[in-house]
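User: C-alpha cells in, sequence out, please.
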C-alpha cells in the first residue's frame, strides 16, 4: 500500500513539474526573453528593418517610449456610466443574427474619416463613443461602435465580415472615406483589433489599442500591414508589461510599424484617461492616411 501511495505521489509531483515547465515556456519566455532593454523616459527605441528577398516581405519597425505626462490621477472609485449625446443606435442583421451598432457624427457630401471602435468586455459601444466624442466633434470624424455578440469579442461571430457589413451601412448613413478608416479597441477590444488588423483583409489606415495583449503566435506576416499604436499602463493587472512588449515586437516582425507607449503608474482603468488616449491616437492616425 505504501509503495502504491508513493507511486501516485511521484506521478502527481511529475505532473506539477511538467505543468510549471509548460507555463514558463508559454508565459515566462515571452516575459523575459523578449523583453527589450529599458529605455529612458522621453527617448525612443527602434527595431531594425529587414527584407526577405524571396517574397519582398519587410518586417515593421518597433518604437518604444514612456509618457509620464499621460499618467492619470487614481480614480476615486470604479464607477463609470457613459455620457454621450447625439449618438444614433442602429439595428442590423448579419449571418441571420440581430446585431447592434452605434454611430456618431454628421452626414455630409464630402467623405469623412471614420473610426471603428471596439469596446471592452461586458461593455457596449456607448462607452467608446463617450471616450471619442470630443475627437469627433473637433475633427469632424465619424465614429462607428458595434456591440459584441456576447459579453466579449468572438472570432466566430465578430468577424471582419461583420465589421465590413457595419462599415457599409455606416457609409450609407454618414459618408466615409475608404482610405481613412481606422480601428481602435480597449482591453478585449484591443486584442480583437490587433488580431483583425493582422489576420484579416480589410484595409485599415491605422490601428490603435489600449490595454490589450494578443497571443503573438497567432500573428501572420503581412506585406500591407497597418501601423499600430499601443498604450499600456505599467500597473495594468491584466496585461504584464513583458508579455505586452513581446507581443508588440512580434507584431512588428510580421510587418506592422508598431509604436508602443508605456504609461507609468497607469492601471487597466480606461475611463479616466480615455479622452487623452483618444486625442493621442487621433494625432497618430492623422499621420497615416492609408496611402
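Assistant: Sequence out:
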Amino acid at each position: 500500500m505504501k509503495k502504491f501511495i508513493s507511486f501516485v505521489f511521484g506521478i502527481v509531483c511529475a505532473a506539477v513539474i511538467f505543468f510549471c515547465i509548460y507555463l514558463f515556456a508559454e508565459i515566462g519566455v515571452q516575459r523575459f526573453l523578449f523583453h527589450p532593454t529599458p529605455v529612458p523616459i522621453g527617448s525612443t527605441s527602434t527595431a531594425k528593418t529587414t527584407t526577405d528577398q524571396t517574397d519582398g516581405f519587410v518586417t515593421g519597425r518597433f518604437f518604444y517610449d514612456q509618457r509620464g505626462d499621460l499618467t492619470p490621477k487614481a480614480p476615486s472609485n470604479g464607477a463609470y456610466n457613459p455620457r454621450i449625446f447625439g449618438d444614433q443606435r442602429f439595428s442590423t442583421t448579419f449571418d441571420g443574427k440581430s446585431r447592434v451598432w452605434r454611430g456618431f457624427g454628421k452626414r455630409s457630401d464630402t467623405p469623412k474619416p471614420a473610426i471603428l471602435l471596439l469596446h471592452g468586455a461586458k461593455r457596449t459601444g456607448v462607452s467608446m463613443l463617450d471616450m471619442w466624442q470630443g475627437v469627433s466633434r473637433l475633427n469632424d470624424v465619424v465614429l462607428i461602435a458595434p456591440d459584441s455578440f456576447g459579453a466579449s469579442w468572438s472570432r466566430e461571430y465578430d468577424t471582419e465580415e461583420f465589421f465590413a457589413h457595419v462599415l457599409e451601412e455606416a457609409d450609407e448613413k454618414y459618408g466615409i472615406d475608404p482610405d481613412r478608416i481606422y480601428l481602435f479597441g480597449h482591453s478585449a477590444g484591443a486584442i480583437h483589433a490587433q488580431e483583425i488588423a493582422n489576420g484579416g483583409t480589410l484595409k485599415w489606415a491605422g490601428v490603435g489599442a489600449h490595454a490589450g495583449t494578443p497571443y503573438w503566435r497567432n500573428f501572420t506576416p503581412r506585406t500591407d500591414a497597418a501601423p499600430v499604436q499601443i498604450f499600456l499602463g505599467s500597473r495594468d493587472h491584466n496585461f504584464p508589461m513583458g508579455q505586452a512588449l513581446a507581443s508588440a515586437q512580434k507584431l512588428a516582425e510580421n510587418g506592422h510599424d508598431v509604436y508602443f507607449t508605456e504609461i507609468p503608474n497607469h492601471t487597466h482603468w480606461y475611463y479616466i484617461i480615455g479622452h487623452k488616449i483618444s486625442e493621442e491616437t487621433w494625432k497618430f492616425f492623422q499621420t497615416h492616411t492609408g496611402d
